[in-house]
Specification:
two-stranded antiparallel sheet, 292 residues, Helicase, Ruva Protein, domain 3, seven-stranded mixed beta sheet, Rossmann fold, alpha/beta, 9 strands
């Protein structure tokens, strides 16, 4: 089938294509379609410029294919995991003629990503590129990181507030449990802002494209990752409390033992989670392992 030259950032084109296939927007799935023509080429360029080798890209949610199209023109293989089956006829139309695309009808939070990678990306450097629905940003990013899949980079558009939190410096007021987790697995960077007017329908917030570079993760010597992440989650769940109170409560630890771990880590029991650096959090976690 020949390629079609749809201008997928033109509102009238999007409305016509969707009407042709009797498809409407789904607020429940967080669908806001990009109408700013500069955004997706920049996102796709961020992937393409990362390597000279063969590139495989996992895209999460395709919408009408505006980002997908840019990725297909720059990369060797694109696999898009799309939950909304109503969009498949639209995508077969807008992306017709591209033989390097595979569409998979799955929930990204449930899909067997390891199997997808083995089946579709043999011999390629693998990236993730997506315009993430706001309501699943953190769960998706954490799943991609925690499963330790062979991704080189994750380039995603997220709500600006989420970008600030994900890219914050650990030990700053903006940091949270997800900040620590992301910094454990990758080096984060903001690439560029995207205004709310870049979408249809227009959301109430601005967005930001960020990059998570998994090839530059920190070399943190954590004794037990489960203990580390449980401690971090506990510490930030009640961030106004001291680490002695929040961690003891969240982990079910005796305060006397936790106080000893905090002392052995060279920290103050009155310190709060947001004031601790990555190295201090790692040290505290390791000391907790010693006194448990």
């Amino acid at each position: 089938m020949d390629k079609k030259n749809y201008t997928l950032t033109d509102i009238s084109v999007i409305k016509k294509v969707m009407a042709d296939h009797d498809v409407t927007f789904s607020k429940g799935l967080g669908q806001n379609f990009l109408v700013n023509p500069t955004v997706c080429p920049r996102m796709a360029d961020a992937v393409r410029e990362s390597t000279d080798g063969k590139i495989g890209v996992l895209e999460i949610g395709a919408g009408v294919g505006v980002l997908t199209k840019e990725l297909l023109e720059r990369c060797d293989k694109v696999v898009c995991v799309e939950l909304d089956t109503r969009l498949f006829p639209v995508l077969h139309d807008t992306l017709a003629g591209h033989d390097n695309l595979t569409l998979i009808n799955e929930d990204i939070l449930k899909a067997d990503l390891d199997a997808i990678i083995k089946e579709h990306f043999d011999g390629m450097e693998i990236f993730v590129c997506a315009n993430l629905p706001y309501y699943i940003t953190s769960p998706v990013i954490m799943r991609l990181l925690e499963e330790k899949l062979p991704f080189s980079k994750i380039v995603v558009m997220v709500q600006k507030e989420a970008a600030d939190r994900l890219c914050a410096k650990v030990g700053s007021r903006e940091s949270g449990a997800v900040t620590v987790a992301v910094n454990y697995y990758a080096q984060t960077k903001k690439l560029f802002d995207v205004s709310r007017g870049s979408f249809m329908p227009s959301p109430k917030v601005d967005s930001c494209v960020i990059e998570l570079d998994l090839t530059k993760k920190g070399n943190y010597q954590v004794t037990d990752e489960k203990v580390f992440f449980k401690m971090v989650k506990s510490a930030f769940a009640q961030r106004r409390k001291t680490i002695l109170n929040s961690v003891a409560s969240g982990m079910g630890l005796e305060k006397e033992k936790l106080a000893l771990a905090i002392e052995n880590a060279g920290l103050s029991p009155t310190a709060r989670a947001e004031a601790l650096t990555m190295e201090e959090l790692v040290t505290l976690s390791n000391k907790i392992c010693e006194v448990k």
